[in-house]
Amino acid sequence: MKQKFVISRDSDKKELIIKEYAEIEKDRLSLVCEETYDDKVIKTAMEKSKEALYSVLRTDKLYPPISVTMNIGEAVIEIYGSKNKPSAEFVFNNLDFITKDGEKPEIEDDIEDKEDDLDELLEDNLDLKHIGKDETDPVDSLLKVVDDDIPDVEDKT
Question: pTM of the full predicted structure?
C-alpha cells in the first residue's frame, strides 16, 4: 500500500499540519489522518533532540513506523529552518518495508511440485494401527462409571 505524507507549516496560525494519505483504491490516494501541532511544541522538541521531535510527531492518531517518522522529522526540520519552504511531501510504499532490499517477493509457479512433497510426507508418517478397527469398539479408559451411584430420575410431566 502506498502512503503519502504532506507536511505544511501555517505561520499565521503558528501550527504544523501533517496529512496522511493512503492508497485505498488502486492509483487513488485518500486522506486517512490529519494532525495539527502547535509551533511552540515543535520548536521545543527540535531544540531538545531529534528523538524528542519524533516522539512529539507520533500521536495516537498518527503513528507511522519509525523510519517514516524520521523522514517526517527531517522534513519538519527543513521547513522550520527555511523561510522559502512552507511545505514538503513524500510517498512511500509499505512493500519496501516487507521485502528485503526493496525487491519484490518471488512468486513460485511450481506449486504442484510442493503438493507432491506434502503427499509423500503424509504417506510416510501415516499411523496404520487404527486402520481396520471397528469404530464401535469400546475405548479403554481409566474411568469407570458405577451404575449404582446414578440416582433414578423420574420424568414428571
Answer: 0.61
